[in-house]
Write a structure and sequence with these properties.
This protein is α/β, with parallel strands linked by helices and about 400 residues long. It has two domains: about 140 residues, Aspartate Aminotransferase, domain 1 (Alpha-Beta Complex); about 240 residues, Type I PLP-dependent aspartate aminotransferase-like (Major domain) (Aspartate Aminotransferase, domain 2, 3-Layer(aba) Sandwich), CATH 3.40.640. About 40% of the residues lie in helices and about 15% in strands. It is built from 13 helices and 15 strands. The strands form four sheets. A seven-stranded mixed β-sheet has the order 2-10-9-8-7-3-4, with helices on both faces. A four-stranded antiparallel β-sheet has the order 11-12-15-14, with helices on one face. β3, α6 and β4 form a beta-alpha-beta unit. α3 runs antiparallel to α10, α4 packs parallel to α10 and α5 crosses α9. Pyridoxal-5'-phosphate binds next to α5.
Length: about 400
Amino acid sequence: MEYNFDKDTNRKETNSFKWKSLKNLYGNDNIYPMWVADMEFETSPAIRERMKRRIDEGVFGYELLSKEYFDAVKYWMSQKHSYDIESEWILYCSSGMVGLSATLQALTNEGDEILLNTPAYGNFFSTILGCGRKVLESPLKLENAMYHFDFEDMEKCVTSKTKAFLLCNPHNPVGRVWTLEELEKVLEFCEKHRLIVISDDIHFDFVFEGKHTMVGKMATGRKVQIITITSPGKSFNVAGTQVANLIIEDEDIRKKVQRKIKDMAYPFEHIFAEAVIIGAYRESNDWLDHILHYIYENKKMFANTIKEKCVPLKTILSEGTYLAWVDCTDLGLNSEELHRFWEEKCGVAVSYGEEFGKAGEQHVRINLACPRSKIIQILQQIQSAISNI
Ligand SMILES: Cc1ncc(COP(=O)(O)O)c(C=O)c1O
């Protein structure tokens, strides 16, 4: 089937958070939004078709997910990610961050430290802090144009109050797809320090180089507890439908997290959960293949143009995610000037690095999941802004 990803989906006139917040957050709704991580593409026809059928039922009371829902999640984990799981291991929750919040509240105590690698997705900080836990930042290190875990630094950071390690795989914002060897070292480290591993795999379907490994399947023979956060939200552009799944093999900890999800008053499933999961995981593989191809072309074009025509900006063609992480240090601008550069001169709303922790300073994150014509236009605006500095 052919899909038209060049189509302008005209979200300006909708309730899209990405578009509607422009005025409020950037003071200007005439710039192009490349900040929030959702895509400018319509979701797959199969998902939309299933959602329409659900709407046609005409009644939207409380729901209970069927066996087909769990079978579809199992199918995707096995077929796409070589991770064989049981239905009982899957806990539905309304979003990845609700899953993280429930996990932290169920398995750690107030004041405990949660270790993560920075730069890191901004809501990790707010969710951890919102749960009364502390964030322990260990910066990734940049070596040979690639980000790596800094195990020496992680060893120095960890204390008796550190209870969990929050892994982002693939990593938002730097786009690393961690190798098996790196993940083995992570598990070794967590086992040594008795840290629960919370693996956020929300970007796991966007892998362009290397191979994504779900750490859940590496637990055998290790004394380490693993909670994996997954969702069709990023992969199929359905973040607004409130569907995510935690995968927890260990029964005791699963029950604790499940209890917490219930205590947090999120006991019922969203009316679209089943339509989305079955439509995505059973019927949209072809759509995903096409979108991956389209996005990879966007990513290559962006990285090459930045390298060839937008010096002194620097970026790396990342292995995973549809996000580009751009180093602006050599522009020599302070934070306020940098905002002006991107918004006023380049005409684009980006995510500023500070949001990702101290390690993100002088960087911006740019979302490339949009029609290619927009990227071409923004790249031209960036070139012209640089030549006018
Ligand atoms: C790494 C990561 N985790 C979680 C989320 C949010 O997921 P959800 O909307 O399901 O809470 C995002 C969204 O950008 C993300 O990048």
